[in-house]
């Protein structure tokens, strides 16, 4: 999250998500080619908070990786406009969640009609230990890196139903812990 000003009653917040992804999505591919791991930073849309207020926003069709890739890690942080972390005593990040979904191509972006939410299969059999990406303030700084040769595959065109497109949503639940005056 990004705070434009901590001295004004009205603050803007943005959740910064740092994503490590690889264009490799199988062990066989990693043996044949050099690793192509990329790090990208994504920001949630702005969130308006007043001292003592709570925000629990859902943002559909966010700017996030597209295509057939393997996710290696997620990190999320509340940051100010300079990219510096906002202290926990000013903004408590209750949780953030990033979820893939499939949406019919013929509906508006903000419509939830026909949406199919997709969990990641995790490391085990399909949907036995399915998971979403997301954490809260209690897990700040927790390493989420998935060791080589593994990663969580997303964007596989064979898994996207005909007539659908893969998209992402973010849920950010933040509490402004500055004193109300």
How would you describe this structure to a colleague?
This is Putative stress up-regulated Nod 19. Pfam families: SURNod19. Keywords: Signal. Residues 1-28 form the signal peptide. InterPro entries: Stress_up-reg_Nod19. This protein has 181 residues and is mostly beta strands. It has one domain (11-176). The protein has one helix and eleven strands. The two termini are 22 Å apart. The model is unreliable at 1-12 and 23-33 (pLDDT under 50).
State the gist of this model:
InterPro entries: Stress_up-reg_Nod19. The chain is mostly beta strands.
| Strand runs, count | 11
What proportion of the residues is helical, as a percent range?
under 10%
Largest sheet: 5 strands, antiparallel
Distance between the termini: 22 Å
| Total domain modules | 1
Annotation field: number of helices: 1
Mean pLDDT equals: 75
Described by the principal axes of the CA atoms, the overall outline is: globular
Q: From N to C, what is the helix and strand string?
A: EEHEEEEEEEEE
Please compute the radius of gyration using only Cα atoms.
18 Å
**Class computed from helices, strands and strand pairing:** mainly beta
Low-confidence stretches: 1-12, 23-33
Strand content bin: 35-45%
């Amino acid at each position: 999250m990004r705070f434009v000003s901590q001295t004004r009653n009205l603050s803007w917040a943005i959740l910064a998500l740092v994503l490590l992804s690889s264009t490799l999505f199988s062990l066989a591919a990693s043996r044949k080619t050099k690793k192509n791991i990329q790090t990208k930073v994504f920001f949630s849309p702005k969130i308006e908070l007043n001292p003592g207020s709570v925000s629990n926003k859902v943002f559909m069709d966010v700017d996030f990786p597209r295509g057939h890739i393997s996710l290696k890690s997620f990190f999320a942080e509340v940051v100010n406009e300079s990219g510096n972390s906002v202290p926990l005593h000013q903004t408590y990040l209750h949780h953030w969640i990033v979820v893939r979904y499939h949406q019919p191509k013929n509906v508006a972006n903000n419509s939830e009609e026909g949406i199919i939410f997709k969990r990641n299969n995790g490391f085990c059999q399909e949907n036995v230990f399915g998971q979403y990406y997301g954490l809260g303030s209690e897990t700040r700084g927790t390493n989420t890196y998935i060791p080589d040769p593994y990663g969580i595959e997303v964007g596989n065109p064979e898994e996207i139903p005909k007539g659908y497109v893969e998209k992402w949503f973010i849920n950010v639940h933040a509490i402004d812990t500055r004193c109300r005056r």
